[in-house]
Amino acid sequence: MHCKRFRENPLTRREMLAQCANGFGLTALTALLAEEARAEPKPAALNPMAPKPSHFPARAKSVIFLFMDGGPSQVDTFDPKPRLAKENGEAIKMQVPPTQFDNVGKVLKSPWEFKPYGQSGIPVSDLFPHVATCVDDLAILRSMTSEFSEHTNANYFIHTGFGMQGRPCMGAWTTYGLGSVCQNLPGFVVLNSGLIPPGGMDCFTSGFLPASYQGSVFRNGGSPVADLDRTEPSEKLQQDKFALMHRLDQSVLERMGGHNDRVEAAIANYELAYRMQTAVPDLMDVKGETEATRKLYGLDDPYPQTQLYGQQCLIARRLIERGVRFVEVLCPSVGADRWDQHGDLRTGHTNNARAVDKPIAGLLKDLKSRGLLDSTLILWGGEFGRTPMAQGTDGRDHNPFGYTVWLAGGGVKGGTIYGATDDYGYYAVENKASMHDLHATMLHLLGMDHKRLTYRFSGRDMRLTDVYGEVIRDILA
Amino acid sequence: MRAGMILQRWVKRSGRLGVRLLLALAMLIATGMGLSAQPGKGVGTATPSEKRSGSPTSEQGAEFFEKSIRPLLSEHCYQCHARANNMAMGGLQLDSRAAFDKGGKHGPLVQRAQSEKSLLLTAVSYQDKSLQMPPKGKLPDAQLALLRKWVMMGAPWGSNSSALPSPAAPFDIASRKQHWAWQPLKPATPPHVKNSAWVKTPVDAFVLAKLEANHLMPTPPADKRTLLRRVTYDLIGLPPTPAEMDAFLADNSPNAYEKVVERLLASPHYGERWARHWLDLVRYAETDGHEFDFDKPSPWEYRDYVIRAFNADIPYNQFVAEQVAGDLLSTPRLNPTDGGNESAIGTGFWWLGEGTHSPVDLQADEATRVDNQIDVFSKAFLGLSLGCARCHNHKFDAISTRDYYALWGFLKSSRYELTDVAAPVKREPTVRALRELQTQMEPLWIKSTAGNLSQALLGFRETLLAQRTERGTRTVNLKASSVPEAWAKYVHEVAAKDLNDPLYGWATLGEEKPDSLPGKRDALIRTLQAAADKAKQDAKSIEVFEDFRHPDYTGWFTTGEAFGAAPSRTALLVDSAKNRLTGVMGPGVADSGGVSGRFQGTLRSRTFTLAKGRIWLHMAGKDAQVNLIVDGFQRIRAPIYGGLNLHLDNPTTPTWMSIDVTKWIGQRAYLEFLDRGSGSLAVDRIVFSDGGPLPEAPNPLVIALLKDPAVNSAEALAGKLQALFQETDRLWATGKLAQDPDAEARLALLNWMLRNPALAPATASEMPLALRTLVEKRKVLEAALPEPRRVMAMVDGSPEDEPVHIRGNYKTLGENVPRRFLEAIAGAHQPVPPVGSGRLLLAQRLTDGSDPLLPRVAVNRIWQHHFGEGIVRSPDDFGVMGERPTHPELLDYLATEFVRQHWSFKAMHRMMVLSNTYRMSSLPTSKADEADPQNRLLHRMPVRRLEAECIRDAILTVSGRLDPTLYGPSVMPYLTDFMQGRGRPGASGPLDGAGRRSLYIGVRRNFLSPLFLAFDYPVPFTTIGKRTVSYVPAQALALMNNPFVVQQAETWAKRALAEPNKTSRERIDGLYLAAFGRPATEAEANAALAFLTDQEGANGKTEDLRAWTNLCHVLFNVKEFIFVN
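YS: structure for the whole thing
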């Protein structure tokens, strides 16, 4: 018998399989299935998704990214600007850079009132009455900036740190760096609530990293994962096919000299795939959740989009509970558009906020009550913000120069405001934060030094933060 | 490993300074000190020492300038005040220290003794109404504070150098060129080996020598079945058929394997397999990606070109030259089958990248696009990553920032073109015949129309006078009148109201009695002269960009035949529906429809700086387009950029049309006139104006006529007018009009006559027979013109160099860099391209054999696809950060042989796959595996997982569904419910991709096939010389549950059952032979039989399709299916 000596590449070996290759049959497979969801993780060197040690002790174990597709307006949500009310309807008294549509209107005051909330007294607009009650858990970055005025570039930028397609996204970098505790589900899951952001699936790509780190996009409704449902009419038939496949695979392995890491890795895939067939339906089945929990997430809300997004937020929690490393939740369609109100700001933002407000607050509270918020980093934000003056008369155009995102949980100092925009809320003028800073901070909370999380590609050690990025220490708890 | 250590050491060494700076910054932020206008809310741009002492060190000053002031100047000032932009409004330039110190017409901007009163601060503070900068609006307070701080600091300047010094060792090209990859090829002779009997091709000697030096033995040869399956996948990407396997097994001749290799190299599927490898290098995709994933025009033409090139074994240096400059080759390579221009298609490679449809900043968009082009160019051909040099000299390699921008110039001087590559040879005779025909037709048109006009003008004087008499009685009854109704109407309703009408004078004076006429006439002359003077004055603020009065297209670029070799003096506008000549443009006109509406071509201007708010074009045409290409931006679309495109639909009347360019003042642009072969376009004047087009004015010939003292009565006036019109008509008829000193005024009169409703019946009369015959003849000839076949290609534009972008920022420009190839390869002193973009020179430099990287990188790629890893295991990076070759002598031997054997891929394949090295088994042998765990010595062949495309193609092959058709437009991919987002095509393609090979499935950037992606299909954004190979559950899920796989399992089962008179065991062997190239072992067959029996028992019948489908499905999932050993 060959004992783990003959290997194609020492980095892809699977020790566990090497140990039980000869006896690995359906019994082993079903035995694995019976294991806990948090099965004993396999050694890192053998499984690309096995948990890996962080660079230093982590504050957060996992991330939920609540991506606000389209770009919510900072001056209508978390960054009140009295000057807009004062000069409502007047020409803006500052130099305006070219905007996406270059249809510059007058100063437009926010249609929503701001009120102080919580012990911190941080003001939040009426768009987010529920999130407002969690404000003491939020670190609000009012000086966020992007480098792109267009959705697609900006979407790639917030997801991958680069404005064009092809780079690995945050979720891919995170699972590449840390693997995943969960071995029955993908380590990086995107919950599609209906709107795929401009730029498409490349927002969730592993880019030049191996395909192992691709985001798995879970569809909303129907079977959430592509090709997950067995096609066989009966479970027995599928088992029979597995059994035959396994016998024939063993024969192949023997023909190849008894061991081959690559072939064994391909065999191991079937285990995870098979386990996913049970794990995913179990994940999606929220019937066991209490009535109170369901209400907390807004599953009983009369607005269908609130129910939908509430369901997704609840599933995000269930994913985190199962040890999934990175979850991104996409926005639901509220009819007109995502947070991209070039016109009729009032209706569009009202509907978009209504869909997500209660579910997000529910998620924060639920995680907190379960003791999971401390180890889960919540990241809320869009690809850019919006202009303080109108586009036309009642919309707002894109604004990458200064906008708001917030973080919560996972080592973040709650009840914090960081940075500021100018009096209009147009440019970040104080403690300007770049996308790379945000990414560096996220990785830092996950216990990773953004400068050391590298992958050699085309002659460079590539990073999520390219050659930039500073950890925003003022918002760390 | 080595490079990694170097990097670590470098970080340690050079990082110290940076760390100190960061610490200082952190302290500053923590202590709340800073430079901001709002004290205590630090912007964090100064250092504590500065705060303490109040006088920053020069380094701190420079740092502050670079970080805060240069970007600000660049953003707000350089549009009007930068040498790099050729802008010096008010004599002021702000992009160099010297120019800043000098100041503008108001003097220096900063008086250092009294900084507070500096001109700079006065201007930006908007205190002085007469001097407010920037003019578009006051700067935000924070930026004002930065400027104030800077001035108070004494306006320290930053680095004037083109790029910041590299943090690594100083850039010394001579020492960096010591790296192995830059060295010339070292011709090596195959080394001596002990076991010389093992050496089949020279490759073996190199491999064996290393093995022997390490006391290792090569692994014994693979069996014939394994070898055939291996070489068939490697060369054509498909599994061998059972018949091919049988034939090979039965062939006991000593050269049986050689015959197989020749068969495979001759197979058209060889080109398909190797084209796909190539497409990975050039980020091949068929859509633009980005937000809406718009289609690229006929991108598959490039894919097919690559397939044909590989099948024809085009010398690689030619293949590369075609992609770099195929449009410029003096003798393009023609397709032997259809005569199409192959070379030009190659340049499509430049345009395969991602594209933005509505960038806010066109210059940034251009920078991104060009960066991708340079990135792919350098990695694909040279195995170098030049991308690093965009912002700074390469940290390790012999690549400077100047190298990067030297290449940029080639691209800046080149343009996008949808070029017609349809058989130029077939087209030319017809084009010539049509031109010849036109030389006959044009005089006939003029003769006929001028003749009709002259007839109509015979009684013109009398007509005018008669009309006058009747009007004088105030009892005009137009119907009953002897005066043509039309003239009366015209004079009363049109001419009398338009100062510029040639008959305005008649309408004003015609009824005057001789005694009152001279007085009125003098007043009229004054009025008309004043109008003419005003028009002349108004025109002074208008810049005439082009009036096409030069004898050739100097300053212009044409493609296709439509616009001819030179502008015409005049162009005839013919209403083809009515067979009537409706106007004459000139005197100087670019005309694409003069010879034939079916001619196609483009006319592009030189690149110019947009300086006035509008571009006005005086044009006529139909089904033709005008684009303004700003900063190379091609994807013109509404709503943001719709205005940059004009569509013509005025074939009979020239019109002034305009493009509003106020948003892009100061940026570079060119005009593009497109006639795609279905229409026509004529343009005779292009002007730049902040207001309207060239103003209209009274015709100078008419004013001159009125000034004639002999015009002292209505009769005289009518007579003179008739004479003027007749003379004009005569000049035209005799071909002298365009040469007339008053050509422009004459043409205006002629056009007035041609369009005058009163003269219309004359010009509309029947076309003469001779002309009709020629028109019919032209139709016949036009039908013989081959349909244009348009492909994405590159053409030359204005030659332009690019300045260094300091830190990669196009807003901060450094010194200009002349276009040239890499200094490390072609030296510091390279000739400046004598004409055009210089791409041809670049292609020559790249492919003339003096560049060692081109052949090394290519043979390494071939090696990698045969042996699993390259000799250099980082195929796209031969630099210091890449891997060292495992067999350097072999690499150089192969590269030398490659060049010697006319850059033939097929010669290299033979050398590699006929070797004993290639024929080794992949079976592990304990001693060698222990000594060489990563197989860097090549002691055996590796086991390799098939690429996504091969897996799908194999499924189709064994199921019998494969449609082996080559070439053509791609099949729409099958769209699952999981493929959502903007730009999703309206309809999905068929589940089985119509049975076509995977390389014909459309590559839509935003809708890449999940099945492919699961198996590491590359995202097409840059050169991917080596795909990742990963194992993800999506692979298992796809092969288990994907409807395509299930569907093909059934197709395969049907095929297997359709073979008559076979036992189940025989059928199982058949399945195994098809899928794995071998019969099933006893144990395997028994397992399969047991499975079948079980299934068939449950279903109650033998040869049950469901049972066999299940078996086939399992075989797709047996791992041997996706591996080659």
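YS: worth flagging: Confidence is low (pLDDT under 50) at residues 1-55, 160-168, 471-478 of chain B.
IM: good catch. Also The longest strand of chain B covers residues 668-689.
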